[in-house]
Amino acid sequence: MILIVEDDPQVARLITLVLQRSGERSEVVSDGQTALQRATELKPSLIFADLTIKGMGGEALCSALKAQPETREIPYIVLSGDRDVAEKARICGADDYMGKPFEFEDLIRLVRKYARAQS
To answer: With contact defined as beta carbons under 8 Å apart, do 31 and 42 qualify?
Structure first.
């Protein structure tokens, strides 16, 4: 299960479709507070999260998840069109980042690199 934190419905649908076609299950949430709750409940194999989401922003979400023992090991990938995405990802403790717009192949490559094998 991959958690997608994205408040743009079109981008969320696109990511979901790409993941579905590569055999991955996913859940979409549109705000940081819900993402924090769902990540704790679901223990997803990977989290893709935009920096600019409602409520708790992507950087704060990343920092919060990396600070909790139960979610610290979940790979967290920042998605953003921000030109400082690499620096922001590094500062909050994200495992990786991907700029927007992105290529489908890059999304799949990151999934293969980080997603834990599902039992």
So the answer is: no
The burial of 72, by beta-carbon neighbours within 10 Å (0-12 exposed, 13-18 middle, 19 or more buried), is given as exposed
Reported as a single tens digit per residue, the pLDDT across 8-51 is 999 999 999 999 999 999 999 999 999 999 999 999 999 999 99
**In contact, 61 and 89? CB cutoff 8 Å:** no
Domain that holds residue 63: 2-114
Query: Which element (helix H / strand E) includes 54?
Result: none
* Cα–Cα distance, 85 to 43 (Å, whole number): 25
Domain count, the chain: 1
119 located within any domain: no
